[in-house]
């Protein structure tokens, strides 16, 4: 299987537009991990992403007649820029269908490269269906972002460069997976030429279609995907990419949002470059792999596959990187409401730096404190929580509690006697004008909103925390309302954070 792609990769046409990117030694990260870590800097391509390789290779193999008619693609960003730049180089028309939720930064970048942009639908799937319709109507050639042999072969040239740039032993290459085009090309080349090198695929915990598909033995379609790593937010992998990955990839690793944010910071500290979340998946997986296996003195390569980062998203990355690096731990601590207890608690904290501190009197007997503390090692939060308990301070470790990280630390206020029959929900909705108003308008007028928190993170999708007062007699009707929403939601009414601070 791999050898059949070898010739395609060796004959791929990519260097008219792409460049051979650096294989850069990450000195700081290597020293910390006790291994030799290298970064394959695809974020340094002209469009700041590897996608240019596959798009151009596909288009360069089209006939003169097909190029004269033009090409079309669906994309939320990186593939779109690759197709647009390739079209400018080849002198053909490029029509790019993008979701209306696409950040203006990416829309402007595609237009600057000569692409004609059509905004359609709230997701990639909507844009994809519309692109297929336009392709048939206008006689355009569809350029798939990942499930195409020529696209896969174009991405495979990255592996060819890695082996040329590092001719010594390589233990593993870590590759982010969205639809599977990148890892299919990389794995096909490496397994044909250097089969002893491990190929390790990486997905986020909330966008793991390839991992689930391999485990199930068939392609699995996810109902929803997380959109923080928008470059890998694919609900279903390709037919050909699944076939190749299932046969050639040695191992898979899932990483969470906090780990990705920490990896973005790691790369910045080594290179002074800022990766997009998808571009940092490989680095996050290297760290997790070393921690899990305890390996040392190995050569590990992460493909940093993109840097199309919205500037506004950096605020979120900076906040979450501390948790992802195990540099911060969050706790809810209950202390007696008596003289001296607050001082005794502060003395217990000792020399640790306090990163956040929120206090609100609860009643005449006890008070709840929300506190963030700097930490040095992973797992230290559990030790600190146990220390609190030994001193008779009831403590809940909130370090990996999404409600605490995303919302509670930004909220002001507390309990209210007026919030009877309140239920708490987290919702995700497209970050577009009018979306929030449509959400509010769809609600029953008898259901009062008793709590609301929203913070723009510069992402394609927004997240809100809502407290809604629903009388017991109307719970069935409320459940039907939830089922009709097009937005993913999670009920948090029983979350200990909510019960301690807000209920």
Automatic annotation (TrEMBL):
Group of enzyme by EC: lyase
EC number: 4.3.1.19
Source organism superkingdom: Bacteria
UniProt cross-references to InterPro entries, sorted A to Z: ACT-like_dom_sf, Ser/Thr_Dehydratase, Ser/Thr_deHydtase_PyrdxlP-BS, TD_ACT-like, TD_ACT-like_sf, Thr_deHydtase_biosynth, TrpB-like_PALP, TrpB-like_PALP_sf
The UniProt record lists the keyword Cell division: no
Keyword field contains Transport: no
UniProt pathway annotation: Amino-acid biosynthesis; L-isoleucine biosynthesis; 2-oxobutanoate from L-threonine: step 1/1
Cofactor: pyridoxal 5'-phosphate
UniProt entry keywords in alphabetical sequence: Amino-acid biosynthesis, Branched-chain amino acid biosynthesis, Isoleucine biosynthesis, Lyase, Pyridoxal phosphate, Repeat
Catalytic activity, reaction form: L-threonine = 2-oxobutanoate + NH4(+)
Positions of the ACT-like domain: 329-400, 423-494
UniProt similarity note: Belongs to the serine/threonine dehydratase family.
Self-association state and partner proteins as the record states: Homotetramer.
Free-text function comment from the UniProt entry: Catalyzes the anaerobic formation of alpha-ketobutyrate and ammonia from threonine in a two-step reaction. The first step involved a dehydration of threonine and a production of enamine intermediates (aminocrotonate), which tautomerizes to its imine form (iminobutyrate). Both intermediates are unstable and short-lived. The second step is the nonenzymatic hydrolysis of the enamine/imine intermediates to form 2-ketobutyrate and free ammonia. In the low water environment of the cell, the second step is accelerated by RidA.
Protein's recorded name: L-threonine dehydratase
Annotated organism of origin: Sphaerotilus microaerophilus
Gene name, Swiss-Prot/TrEMBL: ilvA_1
């Amino acid at each position: 299987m791999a050898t059949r792609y070898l010739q395609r990769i060796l004959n791929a046409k990519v260097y008219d537009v792409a460049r051979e990117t650096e294989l850069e030694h990450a000195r700081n990260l290597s020293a910390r991990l006790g291994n030799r870590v290298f970064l394959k800097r695809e974020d340094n391509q002209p469009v700041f992403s590897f996608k240019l390789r596959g798009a151009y290779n596909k288009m360069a193999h089209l006939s003169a007649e097909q190029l004269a008619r033009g090409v079309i693609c669906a994309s939320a960003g990186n593939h779109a820029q690759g197709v647009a730049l390739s079209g400018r180089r080849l002198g053909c028309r490029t029509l790019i269908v993008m979701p209306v939720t696409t950040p203006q930064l990416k829309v402007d970048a595609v237009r600057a490269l000569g692409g004609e942009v059509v905004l359609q639908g709230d997701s990639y799937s909507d844009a994809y269906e519309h692109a297929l319709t336009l392709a048939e109507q206008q006689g355009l050639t569809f350029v798939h972002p990942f499930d195409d042999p020529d696209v896969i072969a174009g991405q495979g040239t990255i592996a060819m460069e890695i082996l040329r740039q590092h001719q010594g032993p390589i233990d593993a290459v870590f590759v982010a997976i969205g639809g599977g085009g990148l890892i299919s090309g990389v794995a096909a080349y490496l397994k044909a030429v250097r089969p002893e090198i491990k190929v390790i695929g990486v997905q986020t915990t909330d966008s793991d279609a390839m991992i689930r598909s391999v485990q199930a033995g068939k392609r699995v379609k996810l109902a929803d995907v997380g959109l923080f790593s928008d470059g890998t937010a694919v609900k279903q992998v390709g037919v050909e990419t699944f076939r190749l990955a299932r046969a050639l990839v040695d191992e898979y690793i899932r990483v969470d949002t906090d780990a990705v944010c920490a990896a973005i910071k790691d790369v910045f500290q080594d290179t002074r470059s800022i990766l997009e979340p998808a571009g940092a998946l490989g680095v996050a997986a290297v760290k997790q792999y070393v921690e899990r296996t305890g390996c040392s003195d190995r050569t590990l390569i992460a493909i940093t596959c993109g840097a199309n980062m919205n500037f506004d998203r950096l605020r979120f990355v900076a906040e979450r990187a501390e948790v992802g690096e195990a540099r911060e731990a969050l706790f809810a601590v209950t202390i007696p409401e008596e003289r001296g207890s607050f001082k005794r608690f502060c003395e217990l904290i000792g020399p640790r730096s306090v990163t956040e501190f929120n206090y609100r009197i609860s009643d005449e007997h006890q008070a709840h404190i929300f506190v963030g503390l700097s930490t040095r090692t992973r797992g230290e939060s559990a030790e600190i929580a146990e220390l609190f308990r030994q001193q008779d301070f009831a403590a809940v470790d909130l370090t990996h509690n999404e409600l605490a990280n995303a919302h509670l630390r930004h909220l002001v206020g507390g309990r209210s006697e007026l919030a009877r029959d309140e239920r708490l929900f987290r919702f995700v909705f497209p970050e577009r004008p009018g979306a929030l108003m449509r959400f509010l308008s769809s609600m029953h007028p008898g259901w009062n909103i008793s709590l609301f928190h929203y913070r723009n993170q510069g992402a394609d999708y927004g997240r809100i925390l809502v407290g809604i007062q629903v009388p017991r007699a109307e719970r069935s009707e409320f459940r039907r309302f939830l089922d009709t929403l097009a937005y993913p939601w999670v009920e948090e009414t029983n979350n200990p954070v909510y019960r301690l601070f807000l209920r």
